Amino acid sequence: MKKAVLGILAHVDAGKTTLSESLLYESGVIRRLGRVDHRDTVLDNHKIERERGITVFSKMARLRWGDMNITLLDTPGHSDFSTEMERALQVLDYAVLVISGTDGVQAHTETLWSLLERYEIPSFIFITKMDVSAMGHEAILSELHSRLSEGCIDFTHQSEEARQEQLALLSDAALESYDRCGSVDDSELRRLIRQRKLTPCVFGSGLKDDGVSDFLALLERLTEEEKYPSAFGARVFKIARDDSGNRLTYIKVTGGSLRVRTELRYGPLHGTEALSEKVNQLRLYSGARYETAESVEAGQVCAVLGLSATWPGQGLGIEPDAASPLLEPVLGYRVSLPKGVDARQALPKLRLLEEEDPQLHVVWEAETGEIRIQLMGEVQIDVLRALIKERFDMDVQFDTGSILYRETVRGAVEGVGHYEPLKHYAEVHLLIEELPLGSGIQLCSAVSEDDLALNWQRLILTHLEERQHRGVLTGSPLTDVRITLLSGRAHLKHTEGGDFRQATYRAVRQGLMQAESVLLEPYYSFRLEIPAENLGRALSDIRLMGGEHSAPDLLGERMVLSGSAPVATMAGYLTEVLAYTRGRGRLSCYPGGYRPCRNTEAVVAARGYEPEKDLEHTPDSVFCAHGAGFNVKWNQVPEYMHLESALRAPKAEDGSVKSVKRDINTNIDERELEAIMTREFGPIRRSVYSAPTVRSAPAEEAQRYRKKETLIVDGYNVIFAWDELKKLAADDLDLARQQLLEYLVNYRGFTHNDVVLIFDAYRVSGGKGERGEESGVRVAYTREGESADMYIESLSHEIGRNEQVRVVTSDSLIRLSALRSGVLRCSSQEFINELKDVQKLIRQHL
To answer: Which region, left, alpha or beta, applies to residue 644 given φ > 0 means left and ψ of -120 to 50 means alpha?
Structure first.
């Protein structure tokens, strides 16, 4: 049978839950119609929902009509719970937008329509309450065309001939079908619905059960099942807990199938280590009741038990994670706990609620010992307070709330972060550019893999994504910027993942300190309905609030104003509307995005944020000199950074930025090394070393190499400095090691010098330090916890007393220790050239 996940959306009090009840009744799932005012509906079954008469939590039900299995998702209609509704949109095949015949298209209806467009969800419209509507269907249809889409076509009152003529105008294929057959083929209608060029509209009444069966028949006729891949995939859209406290992960399977006891591997929201957990149970819910299943196929929605760290919007298997939600809270509140309740004990409990609704953004402020939370409005405050009392038996209170500002930048700026305490190294250059308002944060890389390995680039982008970056004006979250990785640098031995985290965070912050920052404040989009005599007062209020509005519309005896205004000035305005209209006015608000703040200086002064004192978001960098790290202020970082400014660096043919190394380098030259060591340890006593001279005769060249010495080779340093071996190591590191060993065996046989090859096994768990010999070349792997630096230093110090020793490496720390031991040093590139010369001499000799 055909499967479809159908979501029902509406403005609050439009009749959405009543229609859901009628759909279940018509399909035979329930035997009698429940009513919201009677508090006995199947889907609004939570105590809080029945007390308030509104839908707070999205619920699912299963029904069958003809040859179609429908999973129905009833979503909240109140704007304070829009985030719950938006999460459900991620798993819908089709949406039903319910519109009240008495009110027409309302402010929140337009928000829902824009969300359906954003998520590209094909839609149907059901206009309910037509039994009590004073508006005719033609007036409502005209409003749908002007405020939603011209593709809204009446499938109830319009004659078949007139409807077919309208349908034929929607596409060339539809017109061709109409000319050929006198009607548009259903397959073409299904395609037009998928493309959102057609939105079928049905008029009726959910309470009177009028037009509901026709609507179900239309759904069966004009929907089609999506084609799913064979590999397993699923999208998480809701986290909840049952009456026993079991954690439920609601998913839609988007590929293959899922069986009980299947082991799923996924990454938690916070943290990088993936988890492997088994599915303990699969539940198919319908209202408060459920059935268990052994397996769930693609296209079905179920609740999974056994997963402890999933999060709404997460993709499992082949399914990618969802994009960030469009609707976010604009008000922040401080949580006041009852006496005797410690904040550290209450915090984990509130974190459980944040799992279920991530937009709460529960934050612990260690400086003040307070818990802060983000909410959409007053109704959500009342519901959350009741929910905390019910779940945790705590009577919490919330303060009056504060505006949640955002920050962005104007223009473009390069930020540099460097992190180099002893034995650590990372440098990152980022380009921070402004984007249009509402774009969020976009991340990309413009670095060639030849300059920075792909795994380091991915790590840097992960660190950019994992953190909410603060602006420098008020410490508010950063938004509407594109951050591009321009260049970066790692050390072959001393760079760890945490080094790039520090360098990345500091690069963002250093860039923001230089940029022209812009403070953004949230706006409400509003719809105000008032008696005609109060129009002048309303227009004056909107101007005083710094808002803007469209031309007033006449709706019966009421005037309708639509527009936008700052959240800061609209707070509490509903009370004023009810007062001056004597209870006859209606105001509905929903998030209208962010715009530049009108009074930036006053807000910044009131916040008193000092970015340089925010140690968790420092803009400074750490460099290393003389064996110790030191802090460099953000405005002095360009003088110390190891890579040139990437904005001025040349670009490759593919558009990537070529990294340019500065003279300031981690490779210290010989004179500087000698000066440091002389100052620290006194004069150095060592044999005189001169560079080899070039001679023309091969036999004379060979004679020079026969001077007896011991060569200590830093294996990995040479491998990754030699392009041939570096490419080989990318596919098979063991093969690269073996190839280097063969070169050294030939080198030893020709020069008769002793060769010791060292490989660093510092991070190898359980490494015991292996020693061996192959064709006269001694090979050593260091022990766990023993770096190659330490081993080479001790070995060169031990044998350098009686023999001439040469250490081959480009590692500055090893070269420094070699100088201290009085032995000779040779860079990896220099030795590679020497090896190539020897190979050439061998060929000539043969």
So the answer is: beta
